[in-house]
Amino acid sequence: MSTFSLAGVEVPRVGLGTNRLTTAPAHVAFVREAVAAGVRHIDTAHLYTGGDSEAAIGEALGGGRDDVLVATKGGYRRGEGRPEVLRAQVEQSLRSLRTDAIGLFYLHRVDPDTPLEESLGAIREHVDRGEIRHVGLSAVGIDEIERARRVVPIAAVQNELSLGERDDDGVIDHCAAEGIAFVPFFPLRGGGRGAEAVAARHGVPVSAVKLAWLLRRSPNVLPIPGTLSLSHLRENLAALDLELSDDDVAEIG
């Protein structure tokens, strides 16, 4: 299946990461071009490019579209999981994205100085007010996911996964069983001659092979490769139409 219902929006399973996006006119135009090319899941964060990433998306989308899910994150650095810090970051994200409600808001990291339940309690306040529709977690294990779910429903988990980083099988399977999206960051890392050979045989870019390998792992996997190039974006989206065989997967390694 090439789509997934993420936070109430049916999206293609390859999204767009925006950790290098700025408010330069070319970057704002790129966001519009990405949506025109079929992207429906755009991932950003409060800290990306000092807030410019969110601002560029807000400008490009004019406050949002019902058929495009914009996910953002807050609470990355130590101490930023405190409720008052998270509240301020959520309010800033709402302003930057020019929206009354964030479709998906992740706790970017579990703060070692703040109980997870306190951080999520602050986020839950915004859910209750209708300012956040769905909640996610990033860089977490199964125990943290289950603790979080006792505070607020969890729609997505964003952890690292790629050909070069494959340590999250248990989390992927747990999320799949519970109907939670697993959103890999840094999805294009790793790979080698096997991936290159498979790409050559299929006549597709190697990035499409790397992403198709992730998509084959489980139907709840939705990678978010980052790019500022429309041509690279189209290469990444090609993964949605690429079917890897068992032999392909064995060759990729």
What does this structure look like?
The protein is α/β, with parallel strands linked by helices and 253 residues long. The chain contains 10 helices and 9 strands. Helix 2 packs parallel to helix 3 (83-97) and helix 3 (83-97) packs across helix 4.
Brief overview:
This protein is α/β, with parallel strands linked by helices and 253 residues long. It is 42% helix and 15% strand.
Q: Can you give the mean pLDDT?
A: 97
Structural class, from helix and strand content?
alpha/beta
Helix tally equals: 10
Uncertain spans: none
Main β-sheet description: 7 strands, parallel
Strand order of the largest sheet: 3-4-5-6-7-8-9
Number of strands: 9
Beta-strand proportion: 15-25%
Quaternary structure classification: single chain
User: Percent range for helical residues?
Assistant: 40-55%
Distance between the termini: 23 Å
Q: What coarse outline follows from CA principal-axis ratios?
A: globular
List keywords for this structure.
two-stranded antiparallel sheet; about 250 residues; alpha/beta; seven-stranded parallel sheet; single chain; globular
Topology diagram in text:
Blueprint lengths: L2 E4 L2 E4 L3 E2 L7 H12 L4 E3 L8 H10 L7 E6 L8 H15 L4 E6 L8 H13 L3 E7 L3 H8 L4 E5 L10 H10 L2 E2 L10 H10 L3 H12 L12 H8 L8 H7 L1
Parallel strand pairs: 3-4, 4-5, 5-6, 6-7, 7-8, 8-9
Antiparallel strand pairs: 1-2
Helix pairs in contact: 1-2, 2-3, 3-4, 7-8
